[in-house]
Write a structure and sequence with these properties.
It holds the Pfam family MreC. The chain is an alpha+beta fold. It is built from 5 helices and 12 strands.
């Protein structure tokens, strides 16, 4: 007895076949996107298309936060106003000092005939939401390529470095925070000037200052700022502060644990820096380009020499083949040689006739005064 459904109710391939097909398709898409970035354009189009839906999903949160802001008491507003005034006064003093230092720096650079190192522009942005991946420290900001956001631009707030732009969409951008395990920032210690690289940790709560020798002068409480040697971060931005230094005899480097100065997770309003450094090209890159050009020229000269050598060899072969052809022609046409042999006896008899003629001629008298 047949238990299969009638043809009208058949559902096509089995569930197992469809599962295997979609699993293979998903793996192929993952591998191709990870290796060749084949879905980058699709991802950008989907991000632009889903942007209105994301904004619509954030409307309840904005309404709730607006209502919470309206419910704030007057006492809280007075306290915040007092703190902001104190902060404004402190920043005004620092701004005056910075203006004086900038004028002095410009005067010294003009005196030493040094050009300006870099120009920095800022774009204010706001954090919209965190990413869905729990194993990364990333946030999404509300401006993208249409607002001039560049991939790799540093992101800061009033306290220090927050992170770096790692992915740019038309209307949004993804920022990798300073505490992410894959984020690295070149820094230096303000007190000693020691340069190193600071990394995030898997937990995302501390920072790890790597490649610090055991003999280096690093103390708890040292402040770390950006060194500016990478050409991405402007020099002098506050990054972290040292909280623990572990030096072990069996390792070449010390373990330095730091905490970020800026509130990496608590910041909402940020600044994206457009940092353009004006410096000469790297000598190693210039030498590598010159060496590549020289190798290309020498390769072209070797090709020309090989062509000339082959041409000369061809000419020599042609010259060597000419006597052979002449000899063959002489072998095929022996008549000129026979003619030469016939005419040779006649030429040999001619001197005998001239000798008899000389004997028959009377002897000439020598001229007077000549030797006999």
């Amino acid at each position: 007895m047949e238990y299969s459904p009638p043809p009208l109710f058949k559902q096509g391939p089995s569930a197992l076949a469809r599962l295997i097909f979609f699993v293979v398709l998903a793996l192929a898409l993952l591998i191709s996107d990870a290796r060749f970035n084949t879905l980058e354009i699709v991802r950008g189009v989907l991000g632009a298309g889903l942007y209105p839906l994301q904004r619509a999903a954030l409307v309840p949160r904005d309404i709730f936060m607006g209502a919470a802001d309206l419910a704030v008491t007057s006492a809280t507003l007075r306290n915040e106003n007092t703190k902001l005034k104190e902060k404004n006064l402190e920043l005004s003093v620092k701004a005056g000092d910075a203006t004086q230092l900038n004028a002095e720096n410009a005067h010294l650079r003009a005196l030493l005939q040094l050009g300006s190192r870099a120009s920095t522009q800022t774009t204010p942005v706001e954090v919209q939401y965190d990413t869905r991946d729990p194993f990364t420290q990333k946030v999404v900001i509300g401006k993208g390529a249409q607002q001039g956001i560049q991939n790799g631009a540093p992101v800061v707030n009033e306290d220090g470095v927050i992170g770096q732009v790692t992915r740019v969409f038309p209307l949004q951008s993804e920022v990798t925070l300073l505490s992410d395990k894959d984020q690295a920032v070149p820094v230096q210690i303000v007190r000693t000037g020691l340069r190193s690289v600071i990394y995030g940790t898997p937990k995302g709560d501390t920072l790890d200052l790597r490649f610090v020798p055991i003999s280096a002068d690093v103390q708890t409480g040292d402040e770390l700022v950006t060194s500016g040697l990478d050409g991405i971060y402007p020099p002098g931005l506050p990054v972290a502060k040292v909280v623990r230094v572990d030096k072990q005899a069996d390792t070449a480097f010390a373990r330095v644990v730091c905490l970020p100065i800026a509130p990496v997770r608590g910041a909402r309003q940020l600044l994206v820096l457009h940092y353009e450094i004006n410096q000469p090209p790297n000598p190693e890159e210039v030498e590598a380009a010159a060496a590549a050009k020289e190798a290309k020229d020498s390769k072209g000269k070797k090709g020309k020499a090989a062509a000339a050598k082959s041409a000369s060899a061809t000419a020599t072969a042609n010259a060597a083949s000419t006597p052979t052809a002449t000899a063959a022609a002489a072998t095929k046409n022996p008549e000129p040689a026979a003619v030469a042999k016939k005419t040779e006896p006649a030429a040999a008899k001619k001197p005998e006739k001239s000798e008899h003629a000389r004997k028959a001629e009377p002897a000439r008298k020598p001229a007077p005064g000549a030797a006999p």
